[in-house]
Design brief:
The protein is mainly beta and 67 residues long. The protein is built from no helices and six strands.
């Protein structure tokens, strides 16, 4: 993820049913490149969605978790 200015963001993971699994980031992120790790040890294999929300936009991407 690459932030061009400091801004408030939310980075969340949802399961295929649309239920929130975990919130990875919730707060102010400073400009620059960032890396976030999701420890999915307790999650089952399957399809998940990751959502990134800022004040200006919301994007989603599909993830496939294989164990």
């Amino acid at each position: 993820m690459m932030a061009t200015t400091s801004q408030k963001i939310r980075l969340e993971v949802y399961n295929i049913s649309g239920q929130l699994v975990t919130e990875l980031v919730h707060g102010t992120v400073f400009a620059g490149e960032h890396e976030v790790m999701w420890n999915a040890e307790t999650q089952a294999s399957g399809i998940y969605f990751i959502a990134l929300q800022t004040d200006q936009q919301r994007t989603q991407q599909k993830l496939i978790l294989l164990k």
